[in-house]
Amino acid sequence: MPTSIPDIVISRLPIYLRALDRLAQEGFEVTSSQELGKRLGISSAQIRKDLSHFGGFGKQGTGYKITFLKDQLRAVLKIEREWEVVLVGAGDLGTAVARYRGFADRGFHITCVFDAAPDKVGKQVAGHVIQPIEKLPTVIREKNIQIAMIAVPAEYAQSVADILIESGVRAILNYAPINLNVPQEVHVQYIDPVLHLQQMTYYLS
Amino acid sequence: MPTSIPDIVISRLPIYLRALDRLAQEGFEVTSSQELGKRLGISSAQIRKDLSHFGGFGKQGTGYKITFLKDQLRAVLKIEREWEVVLVGAGDLGTAVARYRGFADRGFHITCVFDAAPDKVGKQVAGHVIQPIEKLPTVIREKNIQIAMIAVPAEYAQSVADILIESGVRAILNYAPINLNVPQEVHVQYIDPVLHLQQMTYYLS
User: Fold this and answer.
1) A121 pLDDT more than 70
2) Which end of chain B is less packed: N or C, by CB atoms within 10 Å?
3) CATH code at B22?
4) Which residues from chain B sit within 8 angstroms of residue A201, using beta carbons?
5) Distance CA A37, CA A45 (A)
6) Residue A98 shares a structural domain with residue A147
7) A169 or B54: which carries more pLDDT confidence?
8) Residues of chain A positioned with their CB less than 8 A from the CB of B25
């Protein structure tokens, strides 16, 4: 498999996979780049080009077998396995993240929840006993965890990220409304719903 | 003010604003494109170019006055006012969205929460009495609401979106893990944390 797939292509593959999951749930067994394109608002040519990076999974005219294409995409994205994830922050936001059922359904298992507040440590959230943040490095190293979610207040997010990275984490999903400074080899994605709202108000009257 | 600002520039302005809020909280009164760039991982040239679309808010060498720049960006993004938002869906996800404090802090007020389930209607969530989904068109029209958040299961999201758009909504923040088909004049942004995780696993070992 080539190693130089453009980031922009990789970023679209989970969207294709999500649409394929949906088609499968609706009972379809075969689809086409036209059908996918229509559902996603992406041109069918773009979809064929993206998939061709991995050798192409269908023939023009016969369409894609959904189960096969799903398996291939999951393999490319390395999500045919389950990933262990740590969650830092057990306040309102962290509690909502811990309770969100969508992670486990789609291959991400929250291993451990951490918080710095002594009154939170030892309590339960979504079946996890909240651990003191001091244990973060040990847990990450012992379990060889590469993915973390940050749901702490903005002012603590960078120092939490520093500890995570120092301990071996290579991918961070950051719910705190602040940009993180990380080394080049560490991947960060952001969840900030207000940013998305503010990206739309410009177009309203 | 010019009307043809590229979408990609608009999409970066909320990120600049968030960084400026942070700088102000840290006690800074003046900043520079270099400082902003360092914090955001964006080149200072890019930041100056983006801001120049609006006439430029600072002089080379003297930096930007943070309060002034914040006000200008808020005016451009039309968030110097408060926006009313409806939330559809009061399950686990909708409840978490309703309880999230970050919206009100940054100019978005949840006016009303709707659900289709008779056992939810009439109950309270985050201070809102849950309304039946049948009232959606009336509330949107009466209050002239342009923004909605969807937090219903994937299979209902498109039909909810259709009702919202038919009633006058022009911007949708969709938490349901499915792509929506909407007319060109309607803006949609997505919140799906699993997509973000799946965009990073490709790069892990």
Assistant:
1) yes
2) C
3) 1.10.10.10
4) 77-79, 83, 147, 171
5) 9
6) yes
7) A169
8) 155
